Amino acid sequence: MTRLFGVFRRISRTDYYEQIPKSAQLGVERKRRLLIVAARIFAVLTILLILGIFVSYKRPDNLFSSSSSPGRSAVFTTLYTNAYALGAATLGHSILRANVNASLVLLYLDDRVSSQALCITEAAGWENHAVSLISPPHGGEGIFYRFVDQYTKLRVWSVGEVLGFDSAVYLDADTLVRRNFDELFGMPWEFGATTDVYLDDRKFAITFNAGVLAFRPSMRTFDDMVGKLEKTDYPLGEAEQGFLNVYYRKDMVRLPYTYNANLATKYADEGMWNELKETMKVVHYTLVKPFWNTDIANDNLTTPEQVRGINGAEGANQWWREEMGWWREVFEDLMNEKGAAIQACYQ
């Protein structure tokens, strides 16, 4: 019994087992510490990733890059008739009010636009550049007479490169900027536009509207476009918009309606229009012009007094009371700041 008890004592002693060498113990401890540090780093990175996703979700604009260099971006518009001078001037003022980080460049037809009209747009902040007309293909056959000058819009691609811009946004003179859209200048696509809205059965079409365009200026692209005008099959009645829809049909991004809030949307879906009000950046006055109608002008220069006489709260324009008010507020702000210089243009 005594002998068995002695054996049991030897088995139960901890020093009976072979001890791990001290150097090996130190190696295990070092690995344990490294694993703890790695786990902490991983946890921090995971938290940062989750925060990044949350911020991107809360800020839709972050889907675009804002990496464009100061002075390398431009907003373009065009002027083919004197009647749109005050429209273009108000557009320019709205761009400046929204603190858009870009140069303002206006292309005009030298033989169509008067020095008085150019004086008005320059007073509002536009840099005026004369360009020659791009004649419609097929001798203008099948093109609505109001659109025959619109192919000249394509010159923004060539002039943009000549002037040294690497990113640009084009806006029709019947648009109004309500919020900053600098993110479009960092857009990682070559071309972007918003799908169109119609009053007929098409309503929200798959084709895009050419009143607001985000693009990369390029002389090569311009030359390629001009070379294909006569050869491309598209609805001629839609002029340059029909052509651009075919030209960029497989190589573009469709921008949200906030970048081209076409008034036709209000007819097509008033609920959607009311939701857009919270985010819309560019309003497009497609169905009613706050600065022009056939009663006061065809292609003639209008005065501020004539524009004020266009009342959006009466008759057929009752539907557009609020939207006309948006434009009128910017127009009156323009006249408050630049009214003396603009009035001098009429002398």
From TrEMBL:
Top-level taxon of origin: Eukaryota
Report if keyword Transmembrane helix is assigned. yes
Per the UniProt record, the lineage of the source organism begins with: Eukaryota, Fungi, Dikarya, Basidiomycota, Agaricomycotina
Please give one Pfam family short name: Glyco_transf_8
Q: Which residues cross the membrane?
A: 34-57
For this entry, the protein name equals Nucleotide-diphospho-sugar transferase
Q: Keywords in UniProt for this one?
A: Membrane, Transmembrane, Transmembrane helix
InterPro entries from the xrefs? Answer: Glyco_trans_8, GNT1/Glycosyltrans_8, Nucleotide-diphossugar_trans
Picking any one GO molecular function of the record gives: glycosyltransferase activity
